[in-house]
Amino acid sequence: MSSIIPLFFKRLSKIDSRRGLGFAALALVAACAAPIPSSVPVDPNEANNRQMHAFNVALDKSLVGPASNAYGSVLPPPVQQGISNFSGNLDLPADVANNLLQGRPHYAVENTFRFLLNSTVGLAGLFDPATAIGLPQRKTDFGETLHVWGVGEGNYVELPAFGPSNERDMVGTIVDIAANPLGAVFPNAPTYVGTVAKIGSKLGDRHRYSETVDSVLYGSADGYAQARLLYMQNRRFELGQTATSDDSFEDPYAE
Question: Is the whole model's pTM more than 0.70, yes or no?
Fold first, then answer.
């Protein structure tokens, strides 16, 4: 079966490519019009952002860090993985919507099939049979949709609790939260289930990458600059962007 599913989507992509040609062309034009970001952080509100960073560090030190350690110590790894799988499955309807808005119907079909498979065979997403047969999640967000439409990243922003971001992704986060189609897919589901699962998944991530997070927040000469740098690097890599200079993203605090 694992060989049949990828073949199915290869054939389906040829059909979808014709139907989605108009959307793909518009998305391509918009993406080409997007400005190439500078290698120098655009951070005119650095003073306010540093204050927000200090708040986030204090929040992590007093609440998020200890809660993640407790989460990782109490729950066995299989349970943590199940919660992460469940949370990721809940994100799929929004991923499908953004795939369509980005003019990527093939990804939308893959995510739809993944959602249906994991929601049934995978017991509401606690297990991930879709990945086992070659259907990884095509994770995206409305911030990426805006990027595809040609919107530049804007100024750097540090958000309360959410951490590093930029003006474009901040708008994307607001839209993703406000317009998540999950309620339409599961109209009778308790509203708190997705929130609890998402918090659990984030605590699991914080525990899993605790050494890296701690080194950035507490071990760097300038934790704010280091967090900003890593966010810019990772986000631009996700979007397939390049900076305007060959020596971009040099860490001024690297030894």
Answer: yes
